[in-house]
Amino acid sequence: MVIAADEPNARGAAGLAPLIALCDEAVALPDATAIVDRIKSELCRMIRGNAFELPVAVMQPLPDRYARRLLHRDPDRGYSIVAMTWGPCQSTPIHDHAGMWCVEGVCAGSIDVLQYELMEQADGERYRFEPRNSYMAGIGSAGCLIPPYEYHLIANPCDRSPAVSLHIYGGDMDYCHVFVREGEGSDWHRRAQRALSFDD
Fold first, then answer.
1. C-alpha to C-alpha distance for 100 and 172, rounded to whole angstroms
2. Distance in angstroms (rounded) separating the CA atoms of residues 144 and 191
3. Would you tell me which CATH number, out of the four given (1.10.238.10, 2.60.120.10, 1.10.10.10, 3.40.640.10), belongs to the domain 14-195?
4. Which helix (H) or strand (E) holds 138?
């Protein structure tokens, strides 16, 4: 069953139809690299050209954490679209995407993205990371993750207005792994699985 943004009682709005059509076409491509390249390039163009409209509720941040709101899920084609709303000072820990490809685009405000490279693993749940690329993503910019290059952190610094980012996943991402630093200044982190849910 498809939970689509233009169906009654769904979380989205009919204005998402062009974005859904793009994803429907892209996921028919032969591999993850081709899929994310197509979605990424077209998503930037669509955001800058106001080619789709997000539901009004997506613009509202939560007071104590970033919000995750499901816009569209297509289990038959194997992808989902989620909007995340970031209030000032809200961020993720370092996390992975549970082996799933993802395209992330910024629709409002700006966010900081810090990418990490996994350097070493020990004792099952201990991981050593080194920071790599760090950049500020503004409206109309997009990035992508293809496992095993899937470790990153997203933040909205305290001196910024709320931000909204769009996340298109190669599946239904209902969990991920988060990585908690073992101590001040340490490159080693402990891995823990975190269940993910959606907000209204």
1. 9
2. 22
3. 2.60.120.10
4. none
Cis peptide before 148 (omega within 30 of 0): yes
Residue 184: count of CB within 10 angstroms of its CB: 5
* The model's pTM: 0.90
In this structure, what token pair is assigned to residue 185? 């200044």
Q: Report which DSSP code applies to 48.
A: H
Tens digits of pLDDT across the chain (200 residues): 233 333 333 444 459 999 999 999 999 999 999 999 999 999 999 999 999 999 999 999 999 999 999 999 999 999 999 999 999 999 999 999 999 999 999 999 999 999 999 999 998 889 999 999 999 999 999 999 999 999 999 999 999 999 999 999 999 999 999 999 999 889 999 999 999 999 98
Quote the DSSP letter at residue 149. B
